[in-house]
Fold this protein.
Amino acid sequence: MSKTQKIFLSTNGTMLVIINSAKTQNYAPLNDLPVSQPPLLDKTRDLVSRCQQMSREEIRAIMKVSEKIADTTFSRFQDFIFPHHQTSSSPVLSSFAGDIFSEIRYHNFTREDFLYAHERVRILSGLYGILRPLDLMQLYRLEMGYKMKIGEAANLYDFWSEAVTTQLNQDLQSTGSSIILNCASKEYSRTVLPRHLDGTILTLTFKQKKNGSVRSIAIYAKRARGMFVDWFITRRIASRRQLREFDRSGYHFVEELSSETELVFITDLDS
């Protein structure tokens, strides 16, 4: 029996999924759904206070953005309201856009889908640390990889890693989960401290065959991560055995390229 086969034959512990946030955002309220405050909002408050001290020029230099984006970012930090309210905030799942979130078809979700997503999906964020799908968020721009000092923390990884890992441990315990499915980019997933995690991290990698060559093409990989999350939510995936069944957009599980810590899926763009 291969090591990868053992992954699926071992304990069928339930799972959480982590993905990364997106720069593209919209104010998009959802009606008739319960909303919540982000779990690490106290630390977000400290971080926003630090960001409110930055000038437009500092924002532009740190984030390497245009003058227009720097102006918008500056204004958004100045206008932050705590706690969040639905007049100026909207749920995470409808607020983020971009390649990953465009494939999470929340417009087709039932109420039960939203609630399952809120329980099982976590979004890593430079400003909020970690978010749940029905948490309220205000529009912002702050990527985890930005080089900025916050108090004693040398950067955002130092600022967030312990708190994010502790929150994930609490979420693993409260949901009875033992596995975290990592669908986040490397920039964001390095926020999690594996040695301090009370569970196993299983990374999902999506590759594409194009012009006879198999590799991970960023835009297709991002979309595939979104497709997987949508599939995970709507299919109520609850065991490791089910993971190899993912088949959206021609993807299929490839055992010979997978390992105990990574599951690889490939689609053929040439066909």
